[in-house]
Design a protein that fits this description.
heterodimer; A: 452 residues; alpha+beta; ten-stranded mixed sheet; six-stranded antiparallel sheet; 28% strand; B: 104 residues; four-stranded antiparallel sheet; two-stranded antiparallel sheet; elongated; DUF1446 domain-containing protein (chain A); AtuA_N (chain A); DUF4387 (chain B); DUF4387 domain-containing protein (chain B)
Chain lengths: 452, 104
């Protein structure tokens, strides 16, 4: 009977460091694999668009070091997916280089490193746009158009299990993956050990966020998932955490539209008939999951495009009359920007904290606080123009003309009489799927021996 | 009359991909979960009213028995992290749910 144990120490490696105590307990439990996802589209489109990481390299390196040393010590494979937040090619190369440096630093015995890329050439996508299998939109989006493709700077494809399986079959000890479905990283390991697809994908689904499937809440702690004959078990490794029916079932719905379906390249995990059972105080067993293979493999694409350079301004208000008329104050500042730059060719955004800064139009509370903080964003084709748009839109708040204002020396307070350069504004231009004949097509794999 | 925040263990919001925000209201006590459902205080219509949105903006609405949870998902007006988006992770959109009155 096929069985497997995998530990996951971090739900987004690099975003915040793993916790050592539960990780070492997990390693001591004798896993067959040590695996973690290192990416997310939660971080917005800027890192993918600018080909950067949002996580500090020191944190990425620290977790990679802990995992590499443990996996080499107990001689089990280590798998990382979605390297460096975005899973772009440069992030994969960076992680491969970090592994190389760590192996040298610790004088590790030679091991086989496998890695694969996930970036997709825009011309490959363009060919599909014109074909009889268009690039279909997700989450209510229309099919991808050439103009949206042209507005895109970088595209990554979301790998399923296929490149991981290939590298495992080639005997890799360490795998660094480009952009990947979180659950595929773990599912590939289980499939390689001969578990059912249903158990493999459920194992991946439950492990992907590490201790988010445990209670009480405490992120970045290690959990251990296993397949052993009947279903999937998941166990919290931190002495004070438990995987309960409620925490495991609850995690099934985290960060997703519905708690029943997980889509990956090649199929769908169906969790409608899942049965949850507490088998010891820290372990829950899950049975009843199903996997439905797709008739046609469609790979999810993520793409980001630059909108413009961006500056940020900050202004605050304490006068209750000004607060009551804040829309007029902002309208005044906007009008000054219109006068200088016209109606288009730039973006000017106001988030008014203390009124509806966090929720915007979704905010049901209509009475503002006694003080407001206004964050102004100016976006334009050049940094010079973005700075001036933002500066005009911020400083003119100071000069807004309200008919009955008592304070005529200045309408807002500044913590800084300047505007700050921010990351260039980007947007998610691609959230679509691309049909492929070969599930490996978009994910070229490579292997290298480290320390030889 | 009680508030939803008195009855639920977890009330949260988070991105579900780049185009949607999902909301989870999770109860520990199944009988409380059942009563809240029976009260019909959380339905697509009440949620749309609370957030002042059209019902068509609600992508999914699920009563999820295994976790004693009510879950709904709304479309964003623009993708997460676009300039002007004040909640890139969608993590602070649940607050209006806390004070929903439940006749229990």
């Amino acid at each position: 009977m096929s069985s497997i144990k995998i530990i996951c120490p971090n739900g987004h490696l690099g975003f915040a460091p793993l916790k050592a105590e539960s990780f070492l307990l997990g390693v001591a439990a004798g896993p067959d694999f040590i695996a973690a996802d290192s990416g997310s589209d939660d971080i917005g489109p800027v890192p993918l668009g600018t080909d950067t990481s949002t996580s500090p390299e020191a944190w990425q390196r620290q977790d990679l070091e802990a995992m590499l040393l443990a996996s080499r010590r107990i001689n089990v494979p280590m798998i990382i997916g979605s390297a460096g937040d975005t899973g772009s090619n440069s992030r994969v190369d960076r992680y491969v280089e970090i592994i190389r440096e760590l192996a040298k630093k610790h004088r590790l015995s030679p091991f086989k490193l496998g890695y694969f890329y996930s970036e997709v050439d825009k011309e490959r996508v363009r060919r599909a746009i014109g074909s009889d299998e268009p690039v279909l939109g997700l989450d209510g989006r229309d099919a991808l158009t050439e103009s949206e493709l042209d507005a895109t700077d970088r595209i990554v494809a979301m790998a399923g299990v296929h490149p991981y399986l290939k590298l495992l079959e080639e005997g890799c000890d360490v795998i660094i993956g480009g952009r990947s479905s979180d659950c595929a990283i773990f599912a590939a390991a289980a499939l390689q050990r001969g578990t059912s697809e249903a158990d493999a994908y459920y194992l991946g689904k439950v492990l992907e966020c590490a201790s988010f499937c445990a209670e009480p809440y405490g992120a970045k702690e290690t959990v251990l998932g296993a397949v052993n004959g009947s279903g999937v078990t998941v166990t919290a490794m931190h002495p004070d955490q438990r995987c309960t029916i409620a925490s495991v079932a609850g995690h099934a719905m985290y960060e997703r539209s519905n708690p029943y379906d997980e889509f990956v390249a090649g199929g769908r995990l169906d969790m409608r008939e899942c049965h949850y059972e507490q088998i010891d105080p820290r372990t829950t067993r899950v049975t009843g999951q199903r996997f439905i293979p797709a008739e046609r493999v469609r790979v999810k694409l993520e793409g980001a495009g630059k909108v413009g350079e961006r500056y940020i301004g900050i202004a605050s208000v304490r006068d209750p009359y000004t607060i009551a008329n804040i829309n007029d104050v902002i309208a005044w500042a906007k009008a000054q920007v219109f006068e200088r730059f016209g109606q288009s060719g730039y973006e000017l955004h106001y988030n008014v904290f203390g009124k509806n800064g966090v929720m915007g139009d979704l905010e049901p509370v209509k009475s503002p606080a006694h003080e407001l903080c206004i964050v102004v964003q100016g976006v334009a084709p050049t940094a010079e123009m973005a700075e001036e748009v933002c500066m005009t839109g911020t400083r003119q708040l100071f000069y807004a003309r309200l008919p009955d204002v008592k304070g005529t020396a200045g309408g807002v307070a500044f913590v800084l009489d300047e505007v700050l350069k921010a990351s260039p504004a980007h947007r998610w231009t691609v959230n679509h799927t691309l049909a492929v004949d070969d599930p490996l097509e978009l994910f070229p794999t490579h292997t290298v021996t480290i320390g030889a | 009359m009680k508030k939803l925040s008195d009855l639920a263990k977890t009330i949260r919001s988070k991105n579900a991909g780049v185009d949607k925000i999902t909301f989870d209201i999770i109860f520990t006590d199944r009988s409380v979960y059942d009563k809240v459902r029976q009260c019909k205080v959380l339905t697509p219509a009440t949620v749309a009213k609370l957030y002042n949105i059209e019902e068509q903006r609600i992508a999914d609405f699920v009563e999820y028995d295994p976790a004693c949870a009510i879950k709904f998902t709304i479309y964003r007006v623009r993708p997460s992290g676009s300039a002007g988006d004040s909640d890139i992770f969608g993590a602070q959109q649940y607050a209006p749910l806390l004070d929903v009155a439940v006749d229990i």
